[in-house]
Amino acid sequence: xxxxxxxxxxxxxxxxxxxxxxxxxxxVFCTAQAERVKRILGGRIAVRPLQEALADVPWxxxxxxxxxxxxxxxxxRSYAGAAAVVRLLRLTRPVLGVLVLPYHLPGIRxxxxxxxxxxxxxxxxIAGRTDAAGDKACATGACGVPWAERSPADxxx
Length: 157
Fold this sequence. Notes:
- The protein contains nine helices and four strands; from the N terminus they run αβαβααββααααα.
- By secondary structure, it is of the alpha+beta class.
């Protein structure tokens, strides 16, 4: 899945930060993979936790960013989930980028996105969270994500 580019003013303001990979910094699995990607990329693409970097790309929906890895290209287009992984491979690993071309075939994309979502929805159960397991905010699965930590009781009172 990808989105269209932002307006020109937003893109110009974000340009120094692009391309950018956004990951869930509260997720142990996500953080480990991000560190691996950083080593491979050697600084060619910024890899930052969404909890710190969303302000740099204000057109990326925070509620969507917390659900899946996002890659924001230099032209401002955002790729999420398996599409972000495929785009990242195509940009940085030409040989592997060729191997993921079947992703664009009908049915394969659907399967890849479902597999990605299956793991993403269980990422805290699989590897844990970087913040305290007993933290009330983590009960919602939104550890470290300020806009998502509010409970319905907070909103009512």
